[in-house]
Amino acid sequence: MAEPTPETHVIDFRSAERLLDARDPRGAVKLLDSVIASHPENTAARLLRARAYFAAARLRPAEREFQHVLEREPDNAFAHFALGRTLVRSGRPEEAVRHFRLAAALDPRPDFVAAARFDEKG
Questions:
Q1: DSSP readout, 60-89?
Q2: Which residues are within 8 A (CB) of 109 and not within 5 positions of it... i.e. 6 or more apart?
Q3: C-alpha–C-alpha distance, residues 118 and 100, integer Å
Q4: Model-level pTM?
């Protein structure tokens, strides 16, 4: 089997996006594993894999990936929002509020602001 090239990784990344859009998160994760193995600091690939894990209800790996992205991009509003959703789905809504509020502060999109629940104390 030929060694993957940068072009192969781009193709795999784009294919993984399409698989996730087609509701095949497990297929997306498979493609992204090799991309991330070769490019572990690629936050776009990690964010896509986190989304795929979330869609596959693999919440622990999704949480780890979202946290990894946020370590490198602490101002990534979507990653904060998605981590918040992951924490809620994991039964940890009180931990999620912080991430929802950071997401809304970084990007006041209506869905981020609604999730932040600024009108509540806490």
A1: HHHHHHHHHHHHH-TT-HHHHHHHHHHHHH
A2: 77
A3: 10
A4: 0.92
Residue holding tokens 């949480």? 63
Q: How many residues does the chain have?
A: 122
List, for residues 30-66, the tens digit of each pLDDT value: 999 999 999 999 999 999 999 999 999 999 999 999 9
Provide the phi-psi class of 117: left if phi over 0, else alpha when psi is between -120 and 50, else beta: left
Ordered DSSP codes for 47-61 = HHHHHHHHHTT-HHH
Q: What is the radius of gyration, based on Cα positions, of the chain?
A: 15
Identity of residue 61: P
d(CA 77, CA 101): 9
Return the structure tokens found at 86: 């992951």
